[in-house]
Amino acid sequence: MSDKPSVLFVCVHNAGRSQMAAGWLRHLAGDTIKVRSAGSEPAEQINPVAVEAMREVGVDITDQTPVRLAWDTAEASDVIITMGCGDSCPIFPGKRYEDWKLTDPAGQPIDIVRQVRDEIRSRVSGLLADLQQQ
Prior knowledge:
Helices cover about 40% and strands about 15% of the residues. It is an alpha/beta fold and about 130 residues long. Strands 2-1-3-4 form a 4-stranded parallel beta sheet, covered by helices on one side. Helix 1 links the parallel strand 1 and strand 2.
């Protein structure tokens, strides 16, 4: 892993879970970690309820756009966190992989999305602490 590790968050639509996780990591780590997110089947836009839930805690993800997972993006990442993207994420030797089982916020009311947001923050905080120890 380089001096500035890179983390890639991947979910199906890159519109909810992965965007919230990337937003949290950017917020908590500043520029100490390169943060990316992608989707196996990206949506047209970020889930507006996810945007609102993150806004409530002072994290702005409105400047992000769902993008398709690219082979070279995964290859260039030190840590790959998947969130329900199934087999579509390529596997590279020497990468750290984690699969986070999280409720998909698509179509969920704000109270459920808040719970997902808070669980993601907890997981991202743990990941960040671990990366800072390495």
